[in-house]
Structures are given as C-alpha cells and as structure tokens.
Amino acid sequence: MKAAALLLIGATLSTAQAAPRQGEADAAANAASLRGIWESEAWSGVNEGGRPAGGIAAVNAKSTLTMHPPYNEEWEAKYQAVAKDKARLAAIGTTMKVCSFAFPGAMESPALFQILVTPEETLFVFATPEVRHIYTDGRGHPAADDVWPTPMGDSIGHWEGTTLVVETIARRADKPLRISSPMTLLSDQARFTERFRRVSDTVLEDEMTVEDPVALARPWVMTLKFRKVTDLDRLPPHDCSENDRNPVVDGKLTITPP
Amino acid sequence: MKAFIRFLAATVVALVVLPVDAHHSGAMFDDQKSITLKGTVKQYQWTNPHCWIQVVVPDEKGVVAEWSVEMGAPMELFRNGWRPRTLKAGDRITVVIHPMRDGSRGGLYVSAVAADGTPYGKPKPVVGAVL
Questions:
Q1: Which of the residues B11, B12, B16 would you substitute to probe the A interface, choosing the one with the greatest number of A C-beta atoms within 10 Å?
Q2: Chain B residues with CB inside 8 Å of A55's CB?
Q3: Which of B8, B11, B12, B25 to probe the A interface (max A CBs under 10 A)?
Q4: Phi, psi of A45 (to 5 degrees)
Q5: Is the Cβ–Cβ distance between A218 and A70 less than 8 Å?
Q6: Confidence (pLDDT) at B20
Q7: Cα(A45)–Cα(B72) distance, integer angstroms
Q8: How far apart are CA A107 and CA A102, in angstroms?
Q9: Distances (CA, A) of B96 to A22, A53, B39, B112
Q10: Tens digit of pLDDT for each residue in A24-72?
Q11: Low-confidence residues of chain B: pLDDT under 70
C-alpha cells in the first residue's frame, strides 16, 4: 500500500514536471503569437535601390497613419494651414532626411522590427534601432510628476488570450504621426490603445485607437498590418551615421564622393 | 447628392504626403529617366544607410569618369540577394540608374548585370513574359 502511494506521488510529480503549468503555457502561446521579425505591410517589397517597389504612391495607398485625423475645429485649422503652405512642404519634401522614427510612425516605416516577449515586458526592437518597452507585469504608467514626453512614449500592456493590449502615453507632441506628413500632429494628451493579434501565419494586426481630448473630435481607429519576415534569421543593424553620403547643400540633397 | 457626398469625402481625406521615409527624400533622382553605365567597379561599399557602387565609366573618347551609384541599406540588399562581397574592384559591370536631377555623376540603382550578362540580385519577373 505504502509502495503504491509512493508510486502515485512519483507519477504525480512526474506529470507536474512534464506538463507546463497553465501560466507557463499561456506565456509560451503569447510569445509564439508575436515573436519574430516583422515589417510594415505598407513598406513590404523594398527594392535594391532602397525604395518601395511600387513607388511612394504604393506605400501611401496602404498606409493608415498618413490619413486625415478626425480633428476638432481648432486643430483642423492648424492642419489646413500647414497643408496649404506648399512652399514649406516642398522644401521639406526636397531635403528631408530620416535616421530614426518616433511612435507611432515607427510602426509604419521601412524599419524592420523584432518582437521579444518576456514575463516582465514585450519589446519591439527596431533595426534603426529604437526600442518600444511595453511593460506587462502589472505596473502602471509613472506618476504624473515622473513622466516626460519621449519619442516612443510610455507603454504598458496586458494579455487577453494571445492578443497583446498596449496603452501608450507621453509621446512627444512635436513629432508628426508619420515623418512624411508634417501636418499630422497630436497634443501631449494623446493616448494610444493598440491590440496586437496574429491573424494568420504571416500577418500580424495592430488595431490602434487614438484618443486626444485636445486635438481630436472623436476617437480615431485604424488598423496597421505587418508581414512576417522569413528571409532573415537576424535583425541587421541600421546605423545611419556609418557612411552618410547625402548632405544637404544649398537646399538640395547631394551625393558626396566616398 | 450622393455624388456630392462622395466628392466631399474624397476632399476631406485628401492626403498631403511627402515622398519621404527611407533615409532621405527621393526628389534628387529623376525617376522618369534611366541611363546605362558600362564600366568597371572601383569600389563597393556595404554600408548604412546606403550601399554604394563606384563605377569608372569611359566615354566615347575614352575619357573616364567616376559615378556614384546609390543603393538601399544592407538590410534591403541582403533580402534582394546581394551580399557584402557580391562585387569587387575590377569587376566589369553594366548598371542602370535613375540619374541625379542636378546633373552630377550619380544616381539611384535600378538594375545591373555582370560582364557575362548575369543579372545581380534575385531574379525578377520579366514584364510581359509568358508564364
């Protein structure tokens, strides 16, 4: 009888060791749902010239962050004022250079990113090489006196099944939503809620809701999509300062000798 | 009325988007024009934010000039079949570029073939090919 009881205990222990606990299984499923290297669907298919295969028009046709935000009257007037300043826009369009991205523009940029899921946080590591830290261990945003605006903002998150829900505040208000749309600004009160979920083997979706009581007339909902990168087994570095041969001279981009 | 609403909607979402996002504006290149450079590789730079091919090209009188051919970043080239040692100095090459608008000797890479006619990079679909 004693031997049988010991056997039973042994079997139970053995089973406990073999099968992961529910929390571990959930964590593994969460990690599996997002892990890997991803690229913005709008920017997939960049050619050897470093330009989108279908041209910038093809990128814009698939982009969401370049859309016209649902501004309130005051911010719509600001938007229109910049949009009408064709001379300023032309100057920006002729000479602009981009070496790093801010949130949310980074999510719809040519920069590849790798997602890493840990028990404490999920990290979006960009090739450019910004990092989004999304804390999922239950901590909240810093207290109001302890938070300041940064390009990526402050993000916390939680898991709903294998969907990662992220809330981001405190992004810098002087950064346009996407670098190519200088008039699309939001206030420092903007709050972003994102729901990341894998919709197929190769596609990750980010349903993003933007709320800004200062700038927007209503919440702004959009969906960003990402494609799994399957032709790279690591994230190549992208250091803009390594060999920049495109200085702006007399208001024009140029090429310098090596 | 419906047509007017459609027009209004189109106007409201009319976008002002600049041709910028990939390191720098592409406005410096004339993408409506392509020229072919037939010459010798002087240097191949596998660097960020752009890779470069320096090509020495003789003109019809035999006078050589050096051209700078801008490519994508290593990350983009690698995915298109290029490697850090795909080219070396002395390689004969024919490169098609979109030239600089300012007339300087440089341009944006479009395609290239080796001396034996082998294309560089991943094979690309041929426009108009019968599948």
A1: B16
A2: 31
A3: B25
A4: 90, 35
A5: yes
A6: 53
A7: 12
A8: 9
A9: 58, 16, 11, 6
A10: 777 788 778 899 999 999 988 888 998 887 777 888 888 899 889 999 9
A11: 1-22, 123-131
**Nearest chain A CA: its distance from B83 CA (Å):** 12
Q: Which residues of B fall within a CB distance of 8 Å from A83?
A: 16
For residue range A157-179, list pLDDT tens digits in order: 999 999 999 999 999 999 999 87
Mean pLDDT over all residues of chain A? 88
CB pairs under 8 A between A and B: 163
pLDDT digits (tens, 9 = 90+) for A189-231: 999 999 999 999 999 999 999 999 999 999 999 999 999 999 9
Closest of A179, A127, A138, A134 to residue A152, by C-alpha: A134
Q: What is the pTM of this model?
A: 0.85
Angstrom distance (rounded) from CA A237 to CA A214? 38
Calpha distance A245→A25 (Å, rounded): 50
To test the contact with chain B by mutation, choose from A40, A46, A48 the residue with the greatest count of B C-beta atoms within 10 A, namely A48
Q: Is residue A150 over pLDDT 70? A: yes
Task: Give B35-49 pLDDT, tens digit per residue.
Answer: 999 999 999 999 999
B102 touches chain A (CB under 8 A): yes
Q: Is B1 exposed, middle or buried (0-12, 13-18, 19+ CB in 10 A)?
A: exposed
* Pair of tokens at residue B11: 């106007």
- The structural domains of chain B, ordered by start, are 26-130 (2.40.50.140)
pLDDT at position A22: 60
B96 touches chain A (CB under 8 A): no
Listed as own residue / partner, the contacts of A135-143 with beta carbons closer than 8 Å and 24 or more positions apart are A136/A164, A141/A167, A141/A169, A141/A170
Q: How far apart are CA A206 and CA A166, in angstroms?
A: 10
Two tokens, residue A148: 């300041």
